[in-house]
C-alpha cells in the first residue's frame, strides 16, 4: 500500500511542513486538493507511472474551511476515469483527519474508488454567480504568517451571519496581492477598496460596515 496524505484546504498548504513531517514518519507522500503542489491528480499520475498497485488517500484538514470530504473521492474518481493505461487500486479513508496523530485510526476504514463517483461538473456550477462584489483575501507567505487563515474564517462566518452567499459576495483566496508590509491584505472589488492589517475583528467589521452597509472601514483602508 502506498499512502498519500491529501491537504484539503488552503490552510493545509500553509502547514505543508507539518504534513511533510507526518508523511515522513509514515513513509507517505503529500498532495493537495487546492492551491498547492503537487495536486492530487499530479501525485496519482506520478505513482501510477512508477507502477504502484494500490494507493490509499487520507484527507487531512489541519485548519479551517476545508471543502466537504466528498471532494476527495470526486477528484480521485475523475482522475481514475481519465487515466489511460494501467490504473492502481485507489482507496480513500472514510474519515477526515483533523490532527496528524489521527492518521493511523483513519486507515482502519477505507472505501475503494470505482469510477462511478460524481463528476467535476454540475448544472449548479454552469453560470457566473450574480455577486455584486468580490472579496479577495491574500494567502501569500507574509499574509499567511500574519494570520490570514483566521481572517478567512472570520470573513466566512461573518458573511454567513449576514446572510450573504456567493450570489451576493464572492470570497476568493489569492496569492500575493501586495503591499506585503500591510498583511493580512484584503481587497474589495469592483469598489477598488484595499484593507491592511485585517485581523478577525476587522474582517467582521468589513462584512457589517462595508459589505452590508456600504461604508468602507476607514481606519483599515489603504491609500490608493
Distance between the termini: 55 Å
Specify the overall morphology.
Answer: elongated
Please provide the ordered H/E string of secondary-structure elements.
Answer: EHHEHEHEHEEHHEEEH
Structure class: alpha/beta
Per DSSP, the total helix count is 8
**Extended strand count:** 9
How much of the sequence lies in strands comes to: 15-25%
The description of the largest β-sheet is: 5 strands, mixed
Major sheet strand order: 2-1-3-4-5
Computed over alpha carbons, the radius of gyration is: 20 Å
Mean pLDDT: 96
Low-confidence stretches: none
Proportion of helical residues = 25-40%
What report would you give on this structure?
A hairpin with a 3-residue loop joins strand 8 and strand 9 (193-195). This protein is an alpha/beta fold. The chain has a 5-stranded mixed beta sheet with strand order 2-1-3-4-5, sandwiched between helices. The chain has a 4-stranded mixed beta sheet with strand order 7-6-8-9, with helices on one face. It has 8 helices and 9 strands.
Amino acid at each position: 500500500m502506498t499512502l498519500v496524505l491529501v491537504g484539503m484546504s488552503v490552510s493545509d498548504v500553509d502547514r505543508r511542513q507539518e504534513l511533510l513531517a507526518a508523511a515522513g514518519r509514515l513513509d507517505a507522500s503529500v498532495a493537495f486538493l487546492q492551491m498547492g503542489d503537487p495536486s492530487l491528480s499530479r501525485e496519482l499520475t506520478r505513482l501510477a507511472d512508477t507502477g504502484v498497485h494500490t494507493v490509499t488517500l487520507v484527507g487531512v484538514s489541519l485548519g479551517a474551511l476545508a471543502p466537504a470530504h466528498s471532494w476527495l473521492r470526486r477528484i480521485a474518481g475523475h482522475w481514475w476515469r481519465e487515466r489511460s493505461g494501467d490504473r492502481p487500486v485507489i482507496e480513500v479513508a472514510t474519515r477526515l483527519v483533523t490532527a496528524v496523530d489521527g492518521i493511523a485510526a483513519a486507515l482502519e476504514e477505507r472505501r475503494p474508488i470505482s469510477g462511478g463517483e460524481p463528476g467535476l461538473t454540475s448544472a449548479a456550477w454552469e453560470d457566473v454567480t450574480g455577486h455584486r462584489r468580490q472579496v479577495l483575501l491574500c494567502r501569500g507567505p507574509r499574509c499567511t504568517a500574519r494570520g490570514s487563515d483566521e481572517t478567512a474564517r472570520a470573513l466566512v462566518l461573518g458573511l454567513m451571519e449576514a446572510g450573504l452567499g456567493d450570489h451576493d459576495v464572492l470570497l476568493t483566496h489569492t496569492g500575493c496581492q501586495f503591499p506585503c508590509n500591510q498583511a493580512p491584505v484584503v481587497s474589495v472589488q469592483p469598489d477598488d477598496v484595499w484593507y491592511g492589517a485585517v485581523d478577525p475583528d476587522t474582517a467582521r467589521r468589513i462584512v457589517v460596515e462595508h459589505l452590508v452597509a456600504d461604508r468602507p472601514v476607514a481606519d483599515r483602508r489603504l491609500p490608493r
